[in-house]
Write a structure and sequence with these properties.
Oligomer: single chain
Structural class: alpha+beta
Helix content: 25-40%
Order of helices and strands: EEEEHHHHHEEEEEHEHHEHEEHE
Number of strands: 14
Number of domains: 1
Shape: flat
Length: about 290
């Protein structure tokens, strides 16, 4: 039996990128995602959850109960169908009981199902799970300046290309980067939904580890240098919570030290936490980073 979570949590994740593309937009030629009205950079919740999944898959490997449902080359309906072969499901009489039992099997087996939730009614019905952990889009503190770079490759893929190049085995390409961007995402953890999915304290500790370290093991030339800079957690004294999440988030401000110069590192920013506002809200502040 897992140790249950009895407190509500809200958290802020600050991360940055140097000379990389943190989250390409397929609708814009894979340029960095941007708010068209403000110029602020965006990173989707799906992108962040993918990195958490990858971290769990890497660190927990084949550990029972920590498999990943949404992973590369996974055929989801096959995984859903397999849950109906479990004895806990087969022994049930009615269809509704089978669906509930299959849902419980999926939550017990897959970390991302009991954490983020999933729709599992596309094959043999295993119901739907509303995950206790939710993360918003990350938004940059300042407008970003996406830059496209022309790159060359001193080779071609086919002999026909070589003939067309007239002996100059060189092909051209494009690469998009953000010179620097500091992003802020907000997250929420519900103990009520955690009780429904079986998300326990061990899972919570793994989530914190993933948010702190997910960029360290997800390097690529396209993403440049990405780093988790701050992970600020608000632990409420109750399951329902003691203060509105948006008020807690407002107690943490991020500002540029010198606005006359473009930001190029985390040291160009100042993070201020109004601890007096948090103390009065009966919320415990935990700075993981």
């Amino acid at each position: 039996m897992k140790d249950e979570i009895t407190n509500r949590y809200d958290f802020i994740l600050l991360f940055d990128v140097v000379d990389g593309n943190p989250n390409g937009d397929p609708d814009a030629g894979n340029l960095p995602r941007v708010d068209a009205e403000t110029g602020m950079g965006l990173v989707t919740d799906v992108c962040l959850k993918r990195k958490v999944r990858n971290y769990i898959q890497m660190t927990k490997a084949d550990a029972e109960g920590f498999d990943i449902f949404i992973k590369e080359k996974a055929i989801l309906n096959d995984l859903i169908d397999a849950s109906h072969g479990d004895e806990k499901v087969v022994s049930k009489k009615s269809e509704s009981e089978k669906i509930k039992a299959a849902r419980d099997v999926m939550c017990a087996k897959y970390f991302d199902v009991r954490t983020f939730g999933a729709v599992m009614s596309t094959g043999k019905n295993a119901g739907q799970v509303r995950g206790p952990v939710q993360i918003t889009f990350a938004r940059s503190i300042d407008p970003i300046t996406p830059t496209e770079h022309t790159i060359t490759r001193m080779a071609v893929a086919t002999s026909k290309e070589a003939e067309n190049q007239k002996g100059e085995n060189r092909t051209m390409g494009r690469k998009a980067t953000v010179p620097y961007g500091l992003y802020r995402a907000h997250g929420f953890i519900s103990p009520f939904l955690a009780a429904q999915t079986g998300f326990g304290k061990e899972d919570l500790d793994l989530l914190w580890d993933a948010l702190k370290n997910m960029f360290e093991n997800d390097r690529s030339a396209a993403r440049g240098l990405m780093s988790a800079r701050r992970l600020i957690v608000f632990k409420h004294d109750s399951a329902l919570g003691n203060h509105p999440a948006h008020k807690l988030f407002e107690a943490v401000s991020v500002s540029r030290k010198d606005k006359s110069l473009p930001a190029r590192s985390f040291s160009d920013y100042e993070v201020f936490v109004d601890k007096s506002a948090i103390d009065s809200a009966k919320v415990t502040l935990e700075e993981k980073i």
